[in-house]
Amino acid sequence: MMWRPSPGAPRAPLYDGRVALQFAILTALTERESTGIELARRFDRAFGYFWPATHQQIYRELDRLKTGGLVTEVPQPEAPGRGQPKIFAITPAGAEALRDWVSETDDPSRLRDGLIVRLRAAAATGDYESVRAAVEHHLDVHERTYALYREIEDRDFAAPADGGDALRHMVLKAGLSMERSWADWCREVLETLDSIPAPSESR
Known about the structure:
Blueprint: H1 17-31, E1 34-35, H2 36-47, H3 55-67, E2 71-73, E3 87-90, H4 92-102, H5 114-125, H6 132-156, H7 163-195, H8 199-202
Antiparallel strand pairs: 1-3, 2-3
């Protein structure tokens, strides 16, 4: 069950990965009711630029939210048969929990990235060129992700947005800014590697 503050209790940090995913799911269900597979596809298309999750993680947290009374199944004319998807919606308790969470604050996430560790390891071992392929791979991933986000921006925010759409656009812009920044940094790393003399040249 998702953490909820008891009346009068001091606020506690909420922002481990599992809890943040729960609130992302509640946000998605606030926007519209969805089946589990629809929710997973929406994460693939629209939520991945700020909180990526696997389909298995989404289904697992959806079950926890249902058990906690924050999500419910939408009644259907006929009970879902075997293999027929269930439709989920946020409950009033879920909406209250989401509103409470929106008003909370937390510290920015700290950087944890394997490429950074590899770069430091290359500096320590002196085998600088060994990290080049990893940097090039990350550059390719960030460039492709940036291009995907631009396609989403052109598709969904071609016209000036206001209200909730304006805020959704700002979320996408955060993803664009992050991917552009990472790509620029990767290019700078590659330029730095190019500028370091080969071992035979530095002797």
